[in-house]
Amino acid sequence: MKKRLVLIDGNSLMFRAYYATSYKGNLMQTSTGLFTNAIYGFYAMTNNILRNEEYTFVAFDAGSQTFRHQEYLEYKAKRRPLPDELRVQIPYIKRYLDILKVPRFENLEYEADDILASLATKFYNDFQEIVIISGDRDLLQLVNDKVKVLLPTKGTSEFDEYNNENFYEKFNIYPWQITDYKGLVGDTSDNLPGIKGIGEKTAKKLLSEYQTLENIIENVEKLDGKVKQNIKENYQEGLRCKHLATLKKDINLPFTITDLKISNYDFNELVNFLKELEFNSFLKELYKRNSNIIDSEVNYEIITDVNIDLTNTLKTNGYLNIEVFGENYYLGEFLGISYVDDESKIFLTKDVIINNKSVIAYLEDENRIKKVADYKVFLLVLKRYGIDLAGVIFDLMIGAYLINPNYANGCVKQVVSNFIENNLPFYENIYGANTKMQIPSIEVYAKYSIQKGLVLKEVEEIIFAELKKIEVLNLFKIEMQLAKVLAKMEYNGLKVDLARLEEIGFELNERLKNLEKEIFAIAGEEFNLNSPKQLGEILFEKLHLPHGKKTKTGSYSTNVDVLEKLALDFPICKKVLEYRAVNKLITTYVNGIKELVDQDGFIHPLYKQTETQTGRLSSIEPNIQNIPIRTEDGQVIRDIFISRFKEGKIVSLDYSQIELRILAHLANDEEMIKLFNNSYDFHAQTASKLYDVDISNVTSEMRRMAKAINFGIIYGMSAWGLSETINVTPLEASIFINKYFETFKSAKNYLDFLIDFVKKNGYTKTILNRRRYIPEITSSNANLRQFGERTAMNAPIQGSAADIIKIAMVNIDKRLSEEKLKSVMIAQVHDELVFDCEKSEVDRLVELAKEEMEKAYNLKVKLEVGIGIGSTWLEAK
């Protein structure tokens, strides 16, 4: 879940809530005569937001003369005075926020917009996403890569989102041009006149050509007619309007991240507040939400007797749900399991599960069919107590994922809602969220678990019918088998050499200190290296490096793309990139792994089986698949992973160029197939054809370029993107691409076919019929449409590679069990499988794993596997 901050324009929402009903003369009142329509609307708009967010802030106008009023006496002069009916409601709105412990603020000198703009700027680097909710379009100027603005569109219930991707499509200008636009056309709501005679169409045309108001004024002689005359006569008014429309982003606000965090509120205090205002519908909803149960009554029994015989109760065709408290189900607290069938609805506590012989016999019985919501979680949790779950034929998450990857996001409530209407509460309603998580009473989570079983029973046939319809039942079986493999991998974990981890941590910290000193020496002063704002000022204002263009947040961009270009000529940028890379290794891996190592010296990464769009696996805690391997500093992290066996070895097997081989197969490209099946160096052969030289004359640089082109092609890379990657002009890159497709004609035809197929059907398919839906391909936004086309070309290839390695994993696991080997599979990193091997089994493991990987799927080209063996994972590469 993204760490995000929600900023609310209290005044804007309050006014909208009031006028949404007052214009009809419909002013709600309590029996005592208190007007409540604004309070009611404000509550309706913010209720869900304030309940589910962790970091939130509400800003209000102080109702005074701000700096804008002092600079321009006519500012907002045409605004209607505040109605008394609204004025009396404002204290109640603020009281509501105080009851919920939501931080709020107002300032005599600045408007709410300015406060929110300054907060968004101040905490830009502390959050992955910043959401601003307001009815005031002035705030649209803040939209950038992290900040999005939600504007109410219908009453108090619907919002229109403005973000970096859709903004230009909606307005035909960029967010950072909003103030220029207002300088040209004015703003009637704020009583800003703009430049006389300049309308919307003319303004947008001018901004498209000259970008800013200042540039338009500078180039006014190039214009003609009335437009030229009006700008020359009124440009000062335009500049003043732009200045007044520009939000303050540098107010010194006395808040820390901690101050933005919502605290736990007093439930009874909120109940009394709603009763006082006679908001009965909200009161009913509040009771329902906090009771953590569902309206519909269900009779069920909680079993706590560990000696009870349940042999005749637990039958075939049972629907099971496991309750684990905590997001990490390996470390979380196991609470129990619910069982539902046509006759019984029972909840078995943890003690009953792990101690009752009849229950264990049922769970391990292959012949008693079971259906579950999350198979892998079941397998791993029970395995920790020595119970081997068997007989499971249905998994809600896997089924939903294969129907549409977007369907498997979230808890059971969210997943099931894609198929049927249901009254299930969200997981957070039962256990809370983030820092507010806690275990409720057993009656609450037992009933929740039973209800999930009933919904599971209702949705099973619908999902199986859809799986059959889209022809992925075979893939469903593979994913079910894979769940067992992944549960074993999570259980087995990876052995960590703690002494080596400490050593690497020390070395990296020393390297970080040295880099810091070197950067400060070049800069001529010390500064906060982790502050993009301060770094930008050093690089572009003090050292006057090129590319010093400011971002929409008002600071200089110091992202990777900018620094990588500058690093070719300026050592300080190269060292900053090194500093960031080393710092990430320390924080994410050295410190992160230390926190996760258990008492036996193992980490247990969890694999997300139903998360990615392509079918690939992802991992968390830690993200074992994202350890950097392209640099020596990154590779060294792999040196901490060692064998659990005395004198054991780590074995790595990695598919060679599998995605290119899949492209050759799917495209039926004879030239590509020939090169692969004759075991030629594919990249060298490609270079030979692109450069028109004999294979013997291909240099390492030519091969490097060809390799970049080969992989760029399967990711749908454009000529411009390729030129950036291999450092040539776009024209040269275009020539390379054209020549590439002249050589591999069928590959070109196939990639074109994929784009056409997705435009017609809306999705791609892998070799096992795994679907990925790509709605972006028909977007009116050119950038989104191009993204859709690139995805259409890559998804079947990358997804097919994921299918193949999953088949290999299932088959290898089966062979390991059949041959009773002690060696275990411990990691999967996309095209690579990693094993921890007992010394005497290394040769056998390599033989069987290589065999299963190379025959996992019958392609028209050979699948080849590289092998590495070492005392650590690093040595095995």
Task: Tell me about this structure.
By secondary structure, the chain is of the alpha/beta class. Helix 8 (178-185) crosses helix 9 (200-210), helix 27 packs across helix 33 and helix 29 crosses helix 30 (700-714). It starts with a strand and ends with a helix. Among the domains are: 1-171 and 252-282, Rossmann fold (3-Layer(aba) Sandwich), CATH 3.40.50; 294-467, Nucleotidyltransferase, domain 5, CATH 3.30.420.10; 495-603 and 612-642, Taq DNA Polymerase, Chain T, domain 4. Mean pLDDT is 88; it is low at 291-295. The strands form 6 sheets. Strands 3-2-1-4-5-6 form a 6-stranded mixed sheet, with helices on both faces.
SSE layout:
Elements: E1 4-9, H1 10-22, H2 37-52, E2 55-61, H3 67-71, H4 84-87, H5 90-99, E3 104-107, H6 112-122, E4 129-133, E5 147-154, E6 158-162, H7 167-171, H8 178-185, H9 200-210, H10 213-218, H11 225-245, H12 267-276, H13 280-291, E7 301-303, E8 318-325, E9 333-340, E10 345-349, H14 350-355, H15 357-364, E11 370-372, H16 375-383, E12 392-395, H17 396-403, H18 412-416, H19 427-431, H20 442-469, H21 473-492, E13 494-496, H22 498-523, H23 532-542, H24 560-567, H25 571-596, E14 602-603, E15 606-608, E16 618-620, H26 632-635, E17 641-642, E18 649-655, H27 658-667, H28 670-677, H29 682-691, H30 700-714, H31 719-726, H32 730-743, H33 745-761, E19 763-765, E20 771-773, H34 782-818, E21 824-829, E22 832-837, H35 842-854, E23 865-870, H36 873-876
Parallel strand pairs: 1-2, 1-4, 2-3, 4-5, 7-10, 8-11, 11-12
Antiparallel strand pairs: 5-6, 8-9, 9-10, 13-14, 13-17, 15-16, 18-22, 18-23, 19-20, 21-22
